[in-house]
Known about the structure:
By secondary structure, this protein is of the alpha+beta class. The chain has helices at residues 2-42, 48-65, 71-78, 81-91, 101-108; strands spanning 133-140, 149-157, 161-172, 175-184.
Amino acid sequence: MKKIIILLFAxxxxxxxxxxKEVVTTEKIVNQDSxxxxxxxxxxxxxxxxxxxxxxxxxxxxxxISDLTLxxxxxxxxxxxxxxxxxxxxxxxxxxxxxxxxxxxxxxxxKFNTKLGGAGVGFLISGQDWTKIKVSKCTLSxxxxxxxxxxxxxxxxxxxxxxxxxxxxxxxxxxxxxxxxLEYE
Length: 185
């Protein structure tokens, strides 16, 4: 009888291990597909501004379908280090352990427009919960910027709200990164 119980536990254990491997394999495939799609976009003969636009739309939509536990790492992978640090400070303004509004403005006023930085709210949208996020508008702006591209963007939480954003995208090696987001409400 003990042998049968041990065999049953072993079988259950190995079945569970097999399922975990399947989940990991599936996640790797999804990540590889998104990477290969990014490479396909970057390797086309499109103008660089159009490549940046396609990358931006895909990056925003992928961010909001990513696992909640991975959102910080996804944000880090699509933003410059400076903007990530800035937005982290902006999100924590007037919260426990965060900067005050004055401290935030003093720290970042030379590099970013702190009035449109989304102080006290999350990355890209101000809503804490969302249903389905789509980029409903992404147009190359006629405004001149020092480097990169500025896109007039509307991020739509389908059936809930629209978020108007001007998003600066810069070239980084063979890829692009978000360097700033001006948030309008």
